[in-house]
Amino acid sequence: MLQHHYIERQSGQVFGEQLLADRMVRLLYHRVREQNSRLFHMLTSSWMSQVLAAVQFDRPVLNRQAFLASCGIDLQECLDAPHTLDTARKLFERKIRYWECRPMPDDEAAVVSPADARVLPGSFSETSLVCLKEKFFAFDELFGQGATQWRSAFQGGDFMVFRLTPDKYHYNHTPVAGRVVDVYTLDGTYHSCNPAAVVSVVTPYSKNRRVVTIIDTDLPGGSGVGLVAMIEVVALMIGDIVQAYSSSRYDAPKPIETGMFLAKGQPKSLYRPGSSTDILIFQPGRVRFAPDIVANAQRRDVISRFSQGFGKPLVETDLRLRSLIAHRTGKEYRC
Question: Among 9, 126, 172, 266, which one is least packed by beta carbons within 10 Å?
Fold first, then answer.
């Protein structure tokens, strides 16, 4: 069986990932996709994704202790009483005391992780050490038809891909502070973000249903890193992305709207359970990625399906929500 490993940021250790429904995903994306395209399209449809989610996540968890241990979920972080979290859906849609258990750097020049996730850095620049043109998404397709101003604004920039595994905390948080200048939803399919599926399907993240939010950070109180595109991508067994920005903890959530000012590190949206992906795109020359994330991505001694599939070292770093991922250029890098 093909293995997939990642590097845990806090310890620096290499871990193997037990990919959810890996055998089914490999069957779907290899044999079914090649032999029956109609069946493949049905299985990656919105309707089928919701059916699979209901079967997988809405039944009561029979052996909760074993389930929690296998997922690594810490109930001590949760706001809700542990006994109320009796289904996989409730566990995956849990709220946590992020203000205590996910500390954020006290640095206005810092860009922070939008999620508990496994991340890969990339760039559209030919001179970058992490040039990954057209691997995970087609740049021209990602923003949708008609969004020529955003394709122009981010041409030649840098990006990070955050893969949320099903066990992760599924709220997305704001990576920067700034004002929303555009927000819109693009319809699409529901491809899995299992590495086997990503390698098999060309640029899947620009084919899936997604929400695009453009944030202007060059204003008073902003992070000063130019325009930032935050793209939330649904995947297999994700029914929806619920926009629910809260300026204080989870209080008074409201949908994201143009003109709204977003504080850094606050809850922005919730993925319905399953696996899903965040993409951050930055304008050229505005940020420097954290050195450890870049160094980890290029390691040749770690087995990764992305490395095997794309023919170059591509190793994910597992990191925590609101931890530092990049720094504004022009300032000294502080970890």
Answer: 126
